[in-house]
Amino acid sequence: MTRHLLIALAIATATLSAQAPDRGKQPPPGPPPALKLPTIQKRQLTNGLPVWLVELHEVPVVQVSFVVLGGSSNDQAGKYGIANLAAAMLEEGAGTRSSLEIADAIDFLGADLTAASGVDSTGVRLHVPVARLADALPIMADVALRPTFPKDELERLRQQRLTTILQAHDDPNTIASLAFSRVLYGADHRYGTATMGTAETIKAFTVEDLRAYYSGAFRPENAGLIVVGDIVPDKALPLLETHFGKWKPAGPPRPRAVLQTPGQPVARVVYVVDKPNAPQSQIRIGWIGVPRATADYFPIQVLNTVLGGAFSSRLNLNLRERHGYTYGATSAFDMRISAGPFAAAAGVQTDKTAESLTEFFNELTGILKPIPVDELERAKNYVALRFPGSFETTGDISRRLEDAFVFKLPDDYFSRYVQNIEAVTAAEAQRVAQKYIAPDKFAVVVVGDKKTIEPKIRALNLGPIKEVTVAEVFSEK
Amino acid sequence: MKRAILFLVLALTTPVMAQNAAPIQLDYTQFDLPNGLHVILHEDHSVPIVSVNVWYHVGSARERTGRTGFAHLFEHLMFMGSGHVKPGQFDEWLESVGGTNNGSTSNDRTNYWINVPSNAVELALFLESDRMGYLLDTMTPQTVDAQRDVVKNERRQRIENQPYGMASVVMDETLFPEGHPYHWPVIGYMPDLTAASYDDVVAFFKRFYAPSNASLVVAGDLNTAATRKLVEKWFGDVKAGPRPEAMPPAEAASPASVVKKTITDRVQLPRIYVGWITPPFYAPGDSALDVVANVLTGGKNSRIYKRLVYDMQIAQNVQAFQGSRTLASVFQIVATPRPGHTVDELLKVIDEEIAKIQQEAPTAHEVQRAVNQFETSFFNQLEQVGGFGGKADQLNQYYTSTGNPGYFNQDLARYRALSPADVRAAAARYLPLDRRVELTVIPERTSK
């Protein structure tokens, strides 16, 4: 009914198109399209390995993601970087296949196979034309289930990683993010060092370390398969059963280390990392944020959109559009199983570093006050109304399903998402602002040309200034 | 980051399909408005979004000396409001309906896209048409000043404060002679950004932003007939304006000898860039050079990668690519030595492998492996309707480059038709060892 009326209206206006349209007010949107979520079909292989499948028949491709719970967060003390290295080593030899054989077969199929660990999970992901799935899947299964961890490949990756860390010294953006985590969590906490680990740990890893990590973490009760693409369960499940259904754990389970969240900073400190002659300063401001399971998830999404999550957010309008100090200013809550950092961030021109800090704090203080109704509504609509269109590619949907799997989101999480955002009130937004935004206690990290920027930062009297060296950021003695 | 700049449009990101599969079927409707705007509509109802994608057929190659970076600066100004849209409202209104937007500038073109939920397509068409027709009504010198500062910071972030960021600038300056439209960087030079004036904005808009110099794609969850009426409604009153003269051809060829250049940067390790001028986008040789790049450095089994990174382990990485553009392309090989090794050691191996592929055709397996990867990249691109590199963007790229929005199958055929002998011939003809630029970036300090 409504739909027909809309079409009739569109035609009626179009007949007037010989004349100029009325540009006096913007055309209002029609009723929002219905939320048409992809159906998640949940199954299980005979060994208990769960399979979540979403059919998407638009393009003849499929993505298969093998997800293991646990990532760099669960690295034991002294072994920081083991999850990351072990994931990278999966493709370096598996079953009877060598590193070069795996790469050649996958490339020849036009497939993309990656193995990588994140903070809370590790994934082996295959993206392939569906006609070649049957050829690619045995290789993927070898990589995920039968890695051989060859010693010479470990030595090669070790040297490559040590060089990667050396090169990271060049990049102010990387340094700023690492330094920020380090001052918040401390050098001994897992979040205080890079997911890749340090030069010291990387130099020490052995094949035995890799095997011990693998057998403790890669287990059917600890993993799942996510399949999204141009395939039906009757085709997919027999294939998956053949290649993953007989998998048994190699040894006893090992409990994952549980991360303790350290206390928040109690007073504001400015940490300066010197990058002589840098034309911009990289800034991070914030403290420890929230875990993914926070009850305040939806109000925080709305709050952060107002502050720094969209183009028209306050930080960007101020630092970029009003003052021209930067190419872009943002803020983000990095939510993990344990509380990750909250940071407001920008790269700003060196001679406006102090001015930029002032504007950052103007906005971080301003967000504690009630948010005007129209601004709050815009932020809610921005988050809620683009949600239905965000289940587009096999990659998009796979990532959302991985999140649901890793963070154990409720079954109705996606179907209730839009209403949960729309339900956020101004009072809730203000409550979470006052709870999670504490400008007086925030850590401030500035990576830039110290001789130019420090005198003016000191004059701001934000708090004590401490110098952190690039070597300290990378845990080098 | 928003309003990005594209230095190269890599042919690798172009779309396809699996061998022996049916041709790519992508239906669209196209027509011209009386004011000269070319319009392409494509329906895809898989998710409730519509993308409005405009390409203006002007990039940094149309700039003049002393005003480099202007096409990109102008792109920024397109988001600052227009006759019926106050500054700030463009983004505010789109965000209010759940929309996102962005734009980018290359040597050859400037593109803009707006993704909206399908119920808000008329708002997107209104905004896009308003800045095409009425941009200058609200433009002020203050607007130009504000975005000038933003763009200077974009340059600092992407070039000057980016490790090895100056290398791409110096490579183009060295390969293309002074006066060639690709000699200067898309982002421009700082003094030229300072010099850009309000009057320049007016002149540039009048010369290059006429509807006859643009093409519009609307793609996604739409009804073709109804959308055509909406496009006619909102774009019909945009004044025609003179169509700019076509971009004049510009001569460019790899240098007559090896040109060596060295720059310093705040980096730990040196890096070598080797560059040649090669055939333009879609010209004979262009797709063969994509395959040459893949055979040399695509994956662990590729020839140079395997020797330098996998076997000898004297390089941290090596990458070759054909950066395809309208007037001329650039083929580059970029390699970084491991600590304790030199760029000369890497160059020796690189040159041995180039000489080898110039003399002997690669194996059928190597060529097929590369072509299969290009086929898949075509598929992958079809998964997304909007944004950079989605279907709307690709329809517009094909229309702009070839006059045929549905060039998908012809583009794929360029790769499928290649024989190993074609790949060898392209390497022999276009990558002469004695005519090229060798640019070395060396660390400012020898010790850390």
Brief write-up:
The complex is a heterodimer of chains A (477) and B (448). By secondary structure, chain A is of the alpha+beta class.
- Using the coordinates shown, work out and report the CATH topology of the largest domain in chain B: Cytochrome Bc1 Complex, Chain A, domain 1
The major beta sheet of chain B can be summarized as: 7 strands, mixed
| Overall strand count of chain B | 13
Strand content of chain A: 15-25%
- Main sheet overview of chain A: 6 strands, mixed
Arrangement of strands in the largest sheet of chain A: 1-2-8-3-7-6
- Low-confidence regions of chain A: 1-18
In the CATH hierarchy, the architecture of the largest domain in chain A is 2-Layer Sandwich
Tell me the number of structural domains of chain B.
2
CATH superfamily of the largest domain in chain A: Metalloenzyme, LuxS/M16 peptidase-like
**Helix content bin of chain B:** 25-40%
Rough shape of chain A? globular
End-to-end CA span of chain B: 31 Å
Major interchain interface with per-chain residue totals:
A-B, 93 and 91 residues
CATH topology of the largest domain in chain A: Cytochrome Bc1 Complex, Chain A, domain 1
Classification by helices and strands of chain A: alpha+beta
Mean pLDDT of chain A, as a whole number?
Answer: 94
Structure in words:
- The complex is a heterodimer of chains A (477) and B (448).
- Helices cover 43% and strands 19% of the residues of chain A.
- Chain A is of the alpha+beta class.
- Chain A folds into 2 domains: 41-244, 2-Layer Sandwich (Cytochrome Bc1 Complex, Chain A, domain 1), CATH 3.30.830.10; 269-473, Cytochrome Bc1 Complex, Chain A, domain 1.
- In chain A, a hairpin with a 5-residue loop joins strand 1 (41-44) and strand 2.
- In chain B, strands 1-6-7-5-8-4-3 form a 7-stranded mixed beta sheet, sandwiched between helices. Chain B has a 6-stranded mixed beta sheet with strand order 2-11-12-10-13-9, sandwiched between helices.
- With 448 residues, chain B is α+β, with helices and mostly antiparallel strands.
- In chain B, helix 1 (70-77) crosses helix 4 (141-160) and helix 11 (343-359) packs across helix 15 (420-430).
- The radius of gyration of chain B is 23 Å and the shape is globular.
- At the A-B interface, helix 1, helix 3, strand 7, helix 5 and helix 11 of A face helix 2, helix 3, helix 4, helix 8 and helix 10 of B.
